[in-house]
Amino acid sequence: QTKVIAFYIAVIDRNKWRLSFLSRHPLIVLKMVLKRTFNRLSKISKGVSGEQADVETKMPDISAYISPSTTNRSWKDSSPQIAKLLFYGVAVTHRGKHVAKRLIEHMLRTLFERGVSRADAIILLHNIAEVRVVHGLGFNIYRQGGCLFVTKDLS
Fold first, then answer.
1. 147-153 and 6-12: which strand pairing?
2. Shortest CA distance to 110 belongs to which of 141, 88, 136?
3. Closest CA to 4 of 89, 62, 63
4. Which of 12, 57, 83, 89 registers the highest number of CB atoms within 10 A of its CB?
5. How far is residue 99's CA from residue 22's CA, in Å, rounded to a whole number?
6. What values do phi and psi take at 34, rounded to 5?
7. What is the 3-state secondary structure (H, E, C) of 20-80?
8. Could you give the CA distance from residue 26 to residue 16 in angstroms, rounded to a whole number?
9. Which is more confident, 89 or 140?
10. What is residue 114's predicted lDDT score, i.e. its pLDDT?
């Protein structure tokens, strides 16, 4: 019996993928839109702004990981040379064993072999474990609103 201990989801050329996904899965898209709308209305009725609702009150200090410069890169950038790292996960039983680091290293090598020259991701502010992993792998980390935008040139 095979057990999955980790996986990742990466998309090359985000805009092309998004259009393809929208056209192939209209019911899933409708569900996502309705859920997002409901969540926003719920936050408004509670009197909480979007950024405040997504961020816990006790935030870890991430200032040591933030890149000192600014960037003109954005999550919205899209081309066949840019990959968006949408998600990765590691089983609870394998956390703390450098599985995430090896998984992302493998993903970056695979993306580079496929002609990708840049990888981007969004990280929630409270996810200090992920911040440490991507920082250790050489990603530049920028605070953008209520999250972190991370980017790395592949070579």
1. unpaired
2. 88
3. 89
4. 83
5. 32
6. -65, -40
7. HHHHHCHHHHHHHHHHHHHHHHHHHHHCCCHHHHHCCCCCCCCHHHCCCCCCCCCCCCCCC
8. 16
9. 140
10. 94
Place of tokens 């990708």: 116
Phi, psi of 135 (to 5 degrees): -65, -45
Q: State whether residue 141 is helix, strand or coil.
A: strand
- CB of 17 closer than 8 Å to CB of 79: no
With vertex at residue 36, the alpha carbon angle to CA 31 and CA 40, rounded to the nearest 5 degrees, is 150
Q: Which residue has the tokens 């998600």?
A: 87
Q: For the whole prediction, is pTM greater than 0.90?
A: no
pLDDT digits (tens, 9 = 90+) for 72-122: 898 889 999 999 998 888 888 888 888 899 999 999 999 999 999 999 999
Residue identified by tokens 């961020």 is 55
Categorize the per-residue pLDDT at 47 as very low, low, confident or very high, splitting at 50, 70 and 90: low
